[in-house]
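Q: What would this complex look like in 3D?
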Amino acid sequence: MRFLPLVFVALAAAAFFVFPYDLAFLTRILIMIVLVLSVDLILGYAGVPTLGQAAMYGAGAYAAGLFAIHVWADPVAGLIIGGLAGAALAFVSGLIVMRTHGLTAIMLTIAVAQICLEIANRARDITGGAEGLRGIRMEPVLGLFAFDFIGQTGYWYALIVVCVVFAALAVIGRAPFGMSLRGIHESRDRMLAIGAPVYWRLVLAYTLGGAVAGIGGALAAQITQLVSLETLSFTLSAEALIMLILGGTGRLYGAVIGTVLFMTVHHLAAANDPFNWLFVIGGMVLAMVFFLPSGLISLGHALKGGRK
Amino acid sequence: MTMKLTTTVAFAAGMIAAQAGADTIKVGVIAPFSGPFAIYGTLYQNAIDVYQAQHGTSAGGHDIEFIYKDVGGPNPDQSRSLAQELLIKDKVDYLAGFTFTPNALAVAPAIEQTQTPTVIFNAATSAINAQSDYYLRTSYTLWQVSAPLADWAYDQGIKTAITTVTDYGPGIDAENAFKAAFEAKGGTVLESLRMPLSTTDFTPFLQRVKDRAPEAVFTFLPGGPPTFTYTKTYNENGLRDAGIKFLGTAETEESNLQGLGDMAIGLTTAYHYSAAHDSQMNRDFLAKLEELHPGAVANWASVGAYDGVHLIYHMVEVAGADGPKAVESALGLEWESPRGPLKMDPETRTVVQNVYLREVARNAETGLLENAETGVIATVGDLGWGK
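A: Here is my prediction, written as structure tokens for the whole assembly.
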């Protein structure tokens, strides 16, 4: 297990050389991993169900896009702005959402994303509305690596961001804060009884998740040079959740594996049969839920016959 | 993964072969083939099939191959990455399709950089073509049909109107076009109502229209369910009886028309194509379509694609895979289409075409509803260019 992170990075680096014509697609997987990781922090660690993570992702994307157009086109600065925007939105909405549980919380997360979507749609002069925010031209990363058409810089840039986010979440997960989130997930009452400030811990977790999603959105804005209303859509939130469930919740590797699996199958199925590919996706999700309810990450465990 | 690897290897081999002299020109078609907008993908594909059945699969000694990519719906991110994939991996020489404006706009940097002629089969906002010289549009723009309709209405003695449009890009384009043309003539737009995209009940909007009692109501709605509900409400709330004339554009298009039923009879629209267009070429087109895809409908998206393919064939014949030369050869090109005569306007790169005034009527022979053309009200290019 110690070397698992290295294996993943090595695989990602190998993918760069094996699929030189698919970098745009591989980069989209990396961006999606950041979003799914943020869902994992909120749902997998803290146990708060969410179907509105796209709100923070979109906020980060629009913030980074607008920042690049009007203020400064430096990619790293843009990531920080995107992260801050995601965190700010998550904090404000989290103050309300975290007062509720279960279905109510889900409804509220959906509502927040829908409100953001409608605001972005209405504020046409700022966001470009349905036509999307265009005209994002990024400066080279760290002033050294210019974004190229084939997407080589974009790929490495996204990969590094994924690694940093992953490492940060791994540290948080092992820190007392992460432990207390797991505690809240297991039993909220017990955590309350031992005096943990459950509400504020959850708000903080939600804010952190928002920051990560915002970074993902910023990454998407910088690499595709475009922000559309889709970044705030319900579909995106739902797909992120499906990817996480496919991979396995509560484990960072689950988020990575689920995203890679879902997007690869999606891509291959849609490329081979652009008309009926949705059947393949549906079938895969059904099969997974029936046979591996804890996600792909539990495959080894299940094969040994030790299903929970 | 192995499959992926095989494709990559096959592709690499293919590239070497291509350089050795084998000659296939590839056209990437980005359109929705799944989900609620899948009808567009089907319409394009049917039209391409018809064109190929009529004219073969090669032009000027080059074989032409179409590669279809599913973009799902209005999704510019996806559109952009599909374009990148087509250009880098599949090495396509032309791009085509594009149902939604944001999807078309999203590929502008990519086609500019790779000098790839891109033929828009549908997306109808004027702003698109200004983003790159490589856009060519064989559909129409909202200005192109809405402004002549406003002129015509004024000439018919209609002096006051209310516009009701769906609140998104194309709707606002239509509103601006109608308003500008109508007011330029001397008419008055009493009010401009914008209805949210997700509206399912139009009663409040139409009640308001009825209360203000204009002589006509101009509308722009996305195809499908909103049109049913809107026309139903228009009739049931007594707007028709009150003599408020319905003025529309694509609302009565062929794929939804039969579903509208008798309540659609008499609706007035201005548009560039009706499947009932009276010409030999249109009849041939429809006959071939029926032969290849029995029961398929033809509407404006079909002719957008059909003429788009014609344009691509022409460009391939003249210029092969040379993008700038291909676009050059397309400018000013005139040809006959199932919708009537067309000319590619060299300035706006949108076709100059007839705008017909139509009224929904029941065809005496087939018993089906159709958009009966009552005349040409204008022959214009993109009137929204630079606005």
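A: To summarize the key features: The mean pLDDT of chain A is 90. Chain A touches chain B at residues 18-19, 21-25, 28, 121, 129-132, 134, 149-151, 220, 224-226, 228-231, 264, 268, 270-271, 274-278 (CB under 8 Å).
Q: Very helpful, thank you.
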